[in-house]
User: What shape does this take?
Amino acid sequence: MAIVVTPLSTAPGSNANFGATITGVDLNFLTEEDFQIIHNAIYVHKVVVVKGQHDLLPAKQFEFVHRLDPAAERVHGFDTEDVTDETSGVLGPRFNIIPGSTGVTLVGQGYQGDDHYGLKGITAKSTTHFDAHAEPLSLADVANGATRFGAFHFDGVIYGAYPSRVTTLRCVRAPKGPDLTVRWDDGSGHTMTVKPGLTAFIDSAQMYSMLTEEEKNIADHSRWEPAPQPYVWTGTRKIRNSGLGMAPGGETVPLEKLPAWTPDKVYQFPMVWVNPVTGVRSFQVLPDVVRTLYLKKGPEDEEEVVEDGERIRTFLNKIIDRIMKPENILVPTYEEGDIVMFNNWVCPSLFANAI
Assistant: This one.
């Protein structure tokens, strides 16, 4: 069977015009032609669901991801020397890497059995909205089927490392249960009905298209800088109930009280990332780790350095609020055995969020 890329159908009333499924391929035995088709599909469609990969070997999954970025180190993107129990902060517990895979990690909740792909007796724990949100849902609401988007993000340690180009999520065992109601709880009244265990995506190319011409000029010429050891630095601050953007309040950790860091590992990133295949521009910033904005209205204009946390928060939330609506969010359906792949860098077209 030949490989087939099929764009996702856009639901009535939806503005989430991205995503595709791929059939007719076995990632354990990938030809160069099929690899190039999948590579281009990731950058064109931004999120792809490769169907029927029940027998995919973890080592082959990692081999595929590394093939997309052969210059990168052969480790998981969050398994750098700078990520330790002391520095992981709001990222939560350290990742469990599947033995023999080099860099495929287990993501889930609860006991995974006596032997799960070589991991012995593992009880997985992932962060939830209870850890991240300013006003978590009550246990009664959760019991009645309410949930939240935890934290929209793109994947990256950020300190001492660049974001991974592509993230892949293989669904080994999917949660079972009735549909859930995602609540914004921000005064908008927005809700979405979703199946448990899926992943939500926002297209930050669409976010860029929502900017005014003046805002585009600023974004095109501006940069942002995360804090060192950013997931510790973010301190007691919380994410808004919608799952994107920072809530008011909370305190960051002073630089002198952070785990050891060096200035050479504090990178600066553009606000706008350009897709290498399509040339499309995307507005891409991680709101929870930004310490400094370098704003310019044009190539010849003077640069304004913004370090005031409240000004940074309101600047970013003003942009984020335009896209944070149900009609702009894609929650693609996938089943056990499917593998989801999404464009994370360059350009990291999406903010992703596990449900």
Summary: Confidence is low (pLDDT under 50) at residues 346-352. The first strand starts at residue 4 and ends at 7.
